[in-house]
């Protein structure tokens, strides 16, 4: 796309209040233009015939046609970047996770007018998601069925970088993974390919609160390994992957030879919570050369500096290659920093981490 032009967004939601709020949030960013709004998919379809948007934000539950059905039609007939806007309900989260399988680029939480902090963080999340969606690679699916720049904080606000590392070797390794836009499908392919006795895995996928639980449960149903949303104090053990809960940072910790995770609150880091940099920094500190780091598809640079710290601590580091990424942002930034040992297509990452390649 032409980066000198504004990103045109069509907002589809049956609530007039939500349409107005989303429009105000989006147009607070000078790089985004709301080309129109629609109360349901039928009105949206007519608007798309007149002018094709760069990105669509789509509600799930709407009259006349639900968002999931509309998404299927879009992705099978005229694929374009779609972001799901959903409320934090059990039904809503499960349906939104299904939408990712149908080709939606991302999920974000409906903004609520509760507090100034929530509105400001929603603005960051929504505008960044739209920008990522605008440059994402969208494929046709076949179905059988703000002007104010927010400070960009580093991992220092959660965990200070260690000046020295004296981490003794163990027989167990930890695989630390970070992903964002396009990461839900990438993680599904990656985890599905792993055997039941794979080394313990810790994952940060940029995703809102509560959605990570539905995402983890869905992966747990289809994978050979156990996949769960991480809880504070969970052990990192063979055959299990822990996914950071939305809206909380996750750190790897160690007590003797036992690895476990700490779940904690804190400010946005690199405009995200959870942050990949926070996970990677803690992995560098507490696992050192006993770790493998993997950075996958995603917008921005979250995880790049943390991956460099992992490499400097003796870890093996891997980046997903450009061709297999939906958005080649995070891996690209890690590669530019010299933080990456191996650049691999998605399907080769799982076999690689299973190889005996200790330092």
Could you say what the CATH architecture of the largest domain is? 3-Layer(aba) Sandwich
Largest sheet: 7 strands, parallel
CATH topology of the largest domain: Rossmann fold
- In quaternary terms, these chains amount to single chain
Relative helix content: 25-40%
Q: Can you tell me the CATH class of the largest domain?
A: Alpha Beta
Distance between the termini: 43 Å
Taking strands numbered 1, 2, ... along the chain, how are they ordered across the largest sheet? 8-9-7-6-12-13-14
In terms of DSSP E residues, the strand content is: 15-25%
Describe the structure.
- With 359 residues, this protein is of the alpha/beta class.
- The chain folds into 2 domains: 7-134, Rossmann fold; 155-353, Methylesterase CheB, C-terminal domain (Rossmann fold, 3-Layer(aba) Sandwich).
- It has helices at residues 16-27, 41-50, 67-77, 90-101, 116-134, 183-192, 211-222, 276-286, 304-312, 330-336, 346-353; strands at residues 7-12, 32-38, 55-59, 82-86, 106-109, 174-179, 200-205, 226-229, 240-243, 249-255, 258-264, 291-295, 316-320, 342-344.
- The strands form 3 sheets. It has a 7-stranded parallel sheet, sandwiched between helices. A 5-stranded parallel sheet has the order 2-1-3-4-5, with helices on both faces.
- The chain starts with 6 loop residues before the first strand and ends in a 6-residue tail after the last helix.
Topology:
Blueprint lengths: L6 E6 L3 H12 L4 E7 L2 H10 L4 E5 L7 H11 L4 E5 L3 H12 L4 E4 L6 H19 L39 E6 L3 H10 L7 E6 L5 H12 L3 E4 L10 E4 L5 E7 L2 E7 L11 H11 L4 E5 L8 H9 L3 E5 L9 H7 L5 E3 L1 H8 L6
Parallel strand pairs: 1-2, 1-3, 3-4, 4-5, 6-7, 6-12, 7-9, 8-9, 12-13, 13-14
Antiparallel strand pairs: 10-11
């Amino acid at each position: 796309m032409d980066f000198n032009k504004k990103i045109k967004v069509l907002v589809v939601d049956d609530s007039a209040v939500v349409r107005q709020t989303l429009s105000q949030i989006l147009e607070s960013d000078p790089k985004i233009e709301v080309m129109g709004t629609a109360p349901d998919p039928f009105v949206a379809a007519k608007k798309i015939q007149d002018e094709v948007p760069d990105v669509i934000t789509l509600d799930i539950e709407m009259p006349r046609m639900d968002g999931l059905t509309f998404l299927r039609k879009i992705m099978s007939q005229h694929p374009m970047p779609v972001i799901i806007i959903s409320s934090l309900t059990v039904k809503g989260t499960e349906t939104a996770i299904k939408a990712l399988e149908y080709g939606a680029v991302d999920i974000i939480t409906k903004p609520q007018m509760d507090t100034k902090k929530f509105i400001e963080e929603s603005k960051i999340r929504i505008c960044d998601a739209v920008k990522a969606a605008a440059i994402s690679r969208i494929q046709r699916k076949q179905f059988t069925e703000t002007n104010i720049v927010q400070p960009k904080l580093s991992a220092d606000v959660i965990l200070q970088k260690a000046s020295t590392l004296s981490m003794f070797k163990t027989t167990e390794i930890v695989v630390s993974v970070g992903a964002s836009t396009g990461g839900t499908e990438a993680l599904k392919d990656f985890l599905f390919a792993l055997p039941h006795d794979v080394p313990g895995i810790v994952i940060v996928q940029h995703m809102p609160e509560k959605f990570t639980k539905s995402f983890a449960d869905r992966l747990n149903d289809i994978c050979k390994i156990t996949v769960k949303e991480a809880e504070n104090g969970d052990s990192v053990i063979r055959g299990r992957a822990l996914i950071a809960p939305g809206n909380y940072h996750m750190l790897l910790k160690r007590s003797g030879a036992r690895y476990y995770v700490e779940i904690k609150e804190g400010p946005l880091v690199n405009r995200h919570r959870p942050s990949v940099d926070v996970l990677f920094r803690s992995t560098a500190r507490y696992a050192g050369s006993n770790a493998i780091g993997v950075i996958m598809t995603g917008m921005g640079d979250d995880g790049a500096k943390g991956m460099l710290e992992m490499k400097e601590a003796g870890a093996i580091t891997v980046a997903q290659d450009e061709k297999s990424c939906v958005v080649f942002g995070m891996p690209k930034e890690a590669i530019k920093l010299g933080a990456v040992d191996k650049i691999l297509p998605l399907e080769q990452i799982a076999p690689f981490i299973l190889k005996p390649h200790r330092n």
